[in-house]
Automatic annotation (TrEMBL):
Higher taxonomy: Bacteria, Bacillati, Actinomycetota, Actinomycetes, Kitasatosporales
Protein origin, superkingdom: Bacteria
Name of the featured protein: Uncharacterized protein
Organism, as annotated: Streptomyces hyderabadensis
Amino acid sequence: MSITQQYLLDTYRARQLGEPAPPAPGAHDWQVVREWHDRRQFQAVLAGRPARGRIRRALRRWWSLWPRALG
């Protein structure tokens, strides 16, 4: 059974049971890839390698707000 056939079957069953339809195949692929990339960068920071990209910006933003939270 292909992914499309399984999706159509799941959608049909959900409709029969009055449940919300499942997400379409591939609907969250980019989000998964982005989270995987962020996780690898986070692991790099823990290992002592420099952060790059989104992680670096998030750490910089967090670090700039941290002293204000103390005082």
